[in-house]
């Protein structure tokens, strides 16, 4: 049987290069797993927009309920919803 000679380059890539590549990307993944300040600002803006839209929707529901009581629309308490959101934000 012939001896199979494995070039040192292939051995180097297999035992040094591949683990280094895997560990490099695992480290990068762990570093970037948190939320950035820019993302946090965007979420804050989206939350404020959603809150204002929710206030407008409740105002419209109150107006419609006052004009047409037979529709059965009842405004829901906003304080309960805002309290839940505040609890979530404090976490």
Automatic annotation (TrEMBL):
- Which parts pass through the membrane? 6-27
Domain of life of the organism encoding this protein: Bacteria
Q: Which GO terms describe its biological process?
A: phage shock; regulation of DNA-templated transcription
Stretches the record annotates as Disordered: 70-91
**Cross-referenced Pfam families, in alphabetical order?**
PspB
Keyword list, A-Z:
Membrane, Transmembrane, Transmembrane helix
Basic and acidic residues bias: start-end ranges: 81-91
What's the protein name? Answer: Envelope stress response membrane protein PspB
Give the source species.
Sphingomonas changnyeongensis
Q: What is the lineage of its organism?
A: Bacteria, Pseudomonadati, Pseudomonadota, Alphaproteobacteria, Sphingomonadales
